[in-house]
Amino acid sequence: MKDIVITDAIKYIGADDKDLDLFESQYVIPNGVSYNSYVILDEKVAVMDTIDQRRTDEWLANLERELDGRNVDYIVVSHLEPDHAASLQVLAEKYPEAKLIGNAKTFNMIPQFFSIDNLADRSVTVKEGDTVSLGKHTLQFFMAPMVHWPEVMVAYEQSEKILFSADGFGKFGALDVDEDWACEARRYYFNIVGKYGMQVQALLKKAAGLDIQMICPLHGPILKENLGYYIGLYDTWSKYEPEDEGIVIAYASIHGNTGKAAKKFAEILEAKGAKKVVVTDLSRDDMAEAVEDAFRYDTLVLACATYDGGLFPCMEDFLHHLKAKNYQKRKIAFMENGSWAPTAAKNMKAIVENFKNVELVDPVVTIKSTMKEENVKTMEELADNLLA
Ligand SMILES: Cc1cc2nc3c(=O)[nH]c(=O)nc-3n(C[C@H](O)[C@H](O)[C@H](O)COP(=O)(O)O)c2cc1C
After folding, report:
1. pLDDT class for 189, splitting at 50, 70, 90?
2. Ligand 1: nearest atom to the Cα of 306
3. Is residue 368 within 8 Å of 342, Cβ to Cβ?
4. Residue 304, beta-bridge partner list
5. Where in the numbering of this chain does the Flavodoxin-like domain appear (predicted)?
6. Which helix (H) or strand (E) holds 57?
């Protein structure tokens, strides 16, 4: 583990995981993921969340090294999802004097996962704005329900002005990997938290009232500088506003002809001056990245082969993901293909019409098996309308 410095009194005790095949059993993580946990060493000692059971031993060794023989007084449980709370039972048993800090929902849910002895006697139940003093350090708690579980809360350490942000500001990628923050943080955000923009907005409003000098999330790097940049992105994302001008062409093609047309359309858009065009093959490219791109840019073109009178399944899957994550406020256009009765555009429209604040842009490009000159003409017209 790279030496991760927080402050003199606050130590990083988390662990990287580079062997996990899929995060939450669905997201590829080419650069792994970090499970973050922290310990605050003051007159009282507080452990800020535990980690996934895949790395319990490493995490306990990190904790014991930092404790250097001291005991744990408090275990703060900001989120009960197993990648953060799975080692709670072990920690609670190892330090039987330690009190658990959570909110009413936390303590309702804990028995579903664990059987901790004397839980009622060991529970410190906090509400919005409550504080717990550790000596020089004071933790203040703010509820963040449905960011992205109901019991989630964040903690603000008042003396060093640090926000322990739970899964907020989280990112895929192990901590010893140098990579752009926004790309993997955006993929994490939209796929995991995306549905709860309103709740993230509520949390950002609370955060705006605090002087935050550092953000310590439960995944990804500790954010120490330029915090306005990260908070600004979270504000844009949670309002469902496009972050950049650009056109995503997402295609679902069985034999390749719809894919060929999608790529031709990208060339036409670029020739007409489109600032950014992204083409994604929904059969083969990472679905989570396709979702991320759809949210990142302001325009989406859906190109799909007709399949048994409906949609080729990866397009149906993509639209299901977008709907589940509250996709809205974008321009959308359609391309369809079929050999005898193309109905993909009608079927895509029926789903998309239920999205909030979308503008459907005509004309629909209808291809019969292979792209013809007349299809290219329609694409030219659609490109002009999208770029107008
Ligand atoms: C299992 C299957 C079901 C299909 N169902 C339809 C259909 O209902 N209507 C239609 O017009 N074409 C249908 N097609 C034909 C394709 O949509 C058509 O050949 C299209 O050109 C394929 O585009 P692609 O080359 O991008 O895969 C079907 C093809 C397959 C393999």
Report:
1. very high
2. 17
3. yes
4. 252, 336
5. 247-387
6. helix 56-67
